[in-house]
């Protein structure tokens, strides 16, 4: 199967980190295509960043449809543009936050999330409520590290994530920790070792869920709200969407 792994920010180093982590965990026969939009924020740390990145995600899915993609992963913990992306394809589209919440709820009754900046914690809290996992999650904690520190100052960032993970272990009454950023995809083993709790990382969780769905022959339903968008004209810089709408 061909799995298109979309890093919604435009930092090539982070796309590579995410791609390597996915390739390490993928089953034989699963081909990982790690991509990022041509245009957009170098990191996603706010609602505005998410809104702009969500358009890039759609363009990556439409590109994937031209290349016979079997499943898509949106590798940003805000799952930007997830439902819109599902409208564009029959293939499964999985957000790393949703994937991590599902996996964590299968191995623990309570988990906490450790994300990057406090200001993005609300985005994870909104997704927990939207996906129906709010009662499983004790806290969304922030290591207070800018996303690109994971690329540029990895060691210091790792120390802060481990410290916050240990606080969650000691204070939240949880059985597992969810890593709240795609850029943490290569840190799972070290954090598990240091904190001593099961650590669920979204990119690798999403790869396994995508393989399971494709293996079951299940894809995005085209009945109801995730049906293909009705073809229409788009204007200005979005004119290119006019001709791109997938055939029904
Ligand atoms: C992510 N931002 O996974 C989110 C993490 C966050 O650029 N990739 C990003 O802090 O919301």
From TrEMBL:
It comes from the Bacteria. Coiled coil: none annotated. Belongs to the HyuE racemase family. This is Aspartate/glutamate racemase family protein. It comes from Halomonas salifodinae.
């Amino acid at each position: 199967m061909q799995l298109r792994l979309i890093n919604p920010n435009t930092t090539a180093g982070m796309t590579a980190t995410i791609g390597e982590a996915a390739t390490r965990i993928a089953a034989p026969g699963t081909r990982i295509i790690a991509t990022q939009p041509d245009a957009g924020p170098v990191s996603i740390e706010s609602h505005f960043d998410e809104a702009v990145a969500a358009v890039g995600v759609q363009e990556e899915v439409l590109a994937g449809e031209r290349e016979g993609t079997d499943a898509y992963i949106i590798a940003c913990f805000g799952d930007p543009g997830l439902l819109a992306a599902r409208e564009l394809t029959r293939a499964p589209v999985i957000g790393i936050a949703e994937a991590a919440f599902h996996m964590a709820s299968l191995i623990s009754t309570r988990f906490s999330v450790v994300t990057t900046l406090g200001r993005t914690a609300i985005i994870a809290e909104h997704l927990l409520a939207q996906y129906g996992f709010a009662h499983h999650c004790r806290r969304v904690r922030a290591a207070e590290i800018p996303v690109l520190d994971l690329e540029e100052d990895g060691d210091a960032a790792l120390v802060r994530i481990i410290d916050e993970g240990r606080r969650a272990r000691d204070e939240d009454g949880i059985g597992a920790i969810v890593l709240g950023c795609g850029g943490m995809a290569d840190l799972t083993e070290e954090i598990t070792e240091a904190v001593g709790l099961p650590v669920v990382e979204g990119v690798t969780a999403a790869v396994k869920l995508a393989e399971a769905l494709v293996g079951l022959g299940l894809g995005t339903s085209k009945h109801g709200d995730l049906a293909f968008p009705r073809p229409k004209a788009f204007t200005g810089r979005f004119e290119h969407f006019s001709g791109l709408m997938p055939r029904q």
